[in-house]
Prior knowledge:
Elements: H1 7-19, H2 23-31, E1 35-37, H3 41-46, E2 51-57, E3 60-63, E4 69-73, E5 83-87, H4 98-102, E6 107-118, E7 121-125, E8 132-137
Amino acid sequence: xxxxxxxxxxxxxxxxxxxxxxxxxxxxxxxxxxxxxxxxxxxxxxxxxxxxxxxxxxxxxxxxxxxxxxxxxxxxxxxxxxxxxxxxxxxxxxxxxxxxxxxxxxxxxxxxxxxxxxxxxxxxxxxxxxxxxxxxxx
Length: 138
């Protein structure tokens, strides 16, 4: 029995194999995220109320007077850049220790979370440390 396959069949099969992205390429495309500079207040305000990814160098860490909120700031003046806030009342006791947060100071980090505004300052509430990734140690 002789089966003849048209040359057009091969042309169509080749075109489809080239046009359909590989699973790796499709996954990379899906994982691509727009990253906002943590000091670009206009860009951050454009995504206010939404989940976003920001990147920058952590300038300082601190704690409120009552000792129930810790923070990491991307600028010495918290109103000039994004701040990351850690509510100690809502986390496991040792999750957000000063020592654990100190590892991020002076490093370029990428953080993902909902952009919020509190008293004129932009912030992301951090619920888990894995929301913050060190991108580059300076």
